[in-house]
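Let us practice reading a record.
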Amino acid sequence: MYAEYQMSAASPVYLEIIDFIAAGTTPEAVTHFQPSAEAQRRVSELIEREKEQALSPLEKAELDHFLELEHILRMAKARAHQILTRGE
């Protein structure tokens, strides 16, 4: 139940990442990947609201998941850059 709660809280961002991976990718595509403008707006909104007031548990889970995904994407981009630089 907890995993379903978390997944539903971040579904739009998860779906963007899932679609990106499922479509096949290259190191070049990974280095250029950006979340959609809609996802970026949502995260900005949540960050601003969090500064002003407490977020609901669902909103907090959504923000936390986006931040986790951002960390994973940064690591993937760094690795893709290494691959491109080394010509692996």
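A brief commentary: The chain has one domain: 2-86.
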